[in-house]
Amino acid sequence: MINNPLIKKLKKSSFVKKISASTKAKDLLNNSLWSIFGALFSKGLLFITWIVVARVLGSEGYGQFGIVRSTVLMFVSFAGFSLGVTASKHVAEFINFDKQKTERILGLTMTFGLLMGVAVGIIFYILAPWLAINTLNSKEIIPELQIGAIILFFSSLNGAQIGALQGFMAFKTIAKINISQSLISIPLFILGAIYLGVYGTVWAFAISYILICFLSYFAIRRVCKKYNLRINYGKVWEERQILFNYSLPAFLGGLMVTPVKWYTDSLLVSQSGFREMGIFTAVMTFNGILLMSANMVSAPFTSIMARNKDESRDSKFNRFNILAPWVMGIFFTTPLLFFPEVGSYIFGESFDKQTLSITLIFILLFSSILMFKQGLDRLIAVHDLQWLGFFSNLIWAVVLILTFYLNDNKNSISLSYSYFLAYFISTLFIIPICFKKNIIPKNTFESKQGILIWILFGGFPFIHMLIENLFVKLFIMLSSLTIMVILFNYLFKNKPKKSNLG
Fold this sequence. Notes:
Elements: H1 5-12, H2 14-21, H3 23-80, H4 83-94, H5 99-135, H6 142-167, H7 171-226, H8 240-255, H9 258-272, H10 274-307, H11 316-338, H12 342-347, H13 353-382, H14 386-405, H15 412-436, H16 448-466, H17 470-493
Helix pairs in contact: 2-3, 3-5, 3-6, 3-7, 3-9, 3-10, 4-5, 4-6, 4-10, 5-6, 6-7, 8-14, 9-10, 9-14, 10-11, 10-13, 10-15, 11-13, 11-16, 11-17, 13-15, 14-15, 16-17
């Protein structure tokens, strides 16, 4: 038994007592810890892997891989049909109240995921030559695109499986799956890039999807056995309203994102070549790692909120849902906004230093906005307001396409700027509607403290441009972070007296 005085003192603290007395707090802490562990290990290794692959392939080769990945992921949005978020939300909502309905929902999402994967995979394989020649003007990447058909099939099915595991709150299992996948697939990425170039890297990408799909399948079987459930494939059509009322608007909202990203990526390649695409893809690695880590950390949120959707909007948990991703985004991106030249040292000399730094600044800015918006998106999903999410994404798509298309200089800088403007405007659109729907906790980002945080954060790029002295920049950065810690601490504590975590 541990008799450490510090441990004893912690156990007696009011914070630990509050955690112990709250079911939601314990669920969040336990599941988030596993998600964090899985994210730090698997996504940390993945980040290092992308750096190695980028250095091996160079800006040209990495640009080819980037457009192949972007094209495949565009079709993933079709194949997935938002089945992951559908399974996560509805399994969490009904598992403790209606097991038969849960069995049908599992059967529906798995069956539909399988059918969509087969259909979209075949279509993609047939269209790959046309896409490469007529759209991307790159006949040499036809074989790589055709490998994407395999990725589409397994990603569609796996989306429903991972969503179901999240609904079961099986985040320890998900963490183990991600770690196992990383340990096996990461060497394949590096070896594939070294010996087979872009072709080998894409094959490693496909193998990683196959691996995680099989791991998730066996995990689902174990979890169903634990809950004494049998996936019902015979009566899945009884739950068809879920597809039309929830999956469809979420799917349409997704269609406003991935295909538009692919269109702007292909426009960048056709106008400026794979070198600019390589810079953009490399810098987007920071965005990808931040979002993946945030998703792993906050994955329990949707499931917990779905089980407690009728609680007050000003509860501590809803407040934490809004503030936590915002804090993560601000504190991750701030050091890089002060010192964006770090990116060129990471990815090597084949990437233009100045172009990469400016591109990184805009990507960090919109990444912070996107992190902030995550809390809003979860509230929208839990309260069945997916059509609102669709219109938000529609505005985002229109702004992104128009801004980039009308720009005479179509390069990585102008594309990253277009992303920033699109996320900024679409977020401004959604905030007042969320307040009108009465789903946002009071006194959060609309408070004086929240506005001051955004003003401070918005000034960081100008400090980088105006001040060259390293120590002065470091002092301003540390001072600003200290001020924001104080402001965020105030926002966490400044809550209605009647709210509670449990």
